[in-house]
Hints:
This protein is α/β, with parallel strands linked by helices. It has a single domain, classed as Maf protein. The protein contains five helices and seven strands. Strands 1, 2, 3, 4, 5, 6 and 7 form a seven-stranded mixed β-sheet that branches. α3 (85-95) packs across α4 (132-142). The chain is elongated. It starts with a strand and ends in a 9-residue tail after the last helix.
Amino acid sequence: MPALILASASVYRKRLLERLGLAFACETPDIDESPLPGEPAQELVLRLSRAKARAIAARRPDTLIIASDQVGDSEGRILGKPGTVERACEQLRSIAGREVRFLTGLCVLDAASGRELAAVETCTVRLRALDAAAVHDYVARELPLDCAGSFRIEGLGIALFESVQLDDPTVLEGLPLIRVVEVLGRMGMPVLAQR
């Protein structure tokens, strides 16, 4: 069985994958994650997930690689990681009281054979109407500067929402584990023992 690599420097994705009890290593793919001009969110996360997996495959040819990418889509505007407190506050103010789709791309690549399974999982959230003080309080307390959409659903970010619609609770956290388990099984690496 090939070694398993998570193509990510994200501590959030690492924690998520650890839930499955599999032995894996993390490697940073170091790719340009800029959207292409006019690129829809769904195509962006799929392209970046594949690019991350392929970047690791180029240097680790005998591995099975899991790669993921996530963005929010607010009326066609892509919401990525804010990077600064100011941008996080601005991003949250712009989506307060609105519905936002979060798209999480997933690519599992067998580097030896080139076999690749990829998908995009979607989650829709409706944020509460938030005033500037509530937004600033949240950002100051949680500092979600490295999170698409400027929040952490697994933390205090839950207080920002009126509703969340999804099939897999880990989609919004950045790595859709239900789909990961399915795809790993199809790739010959079942998470649970098989007869």
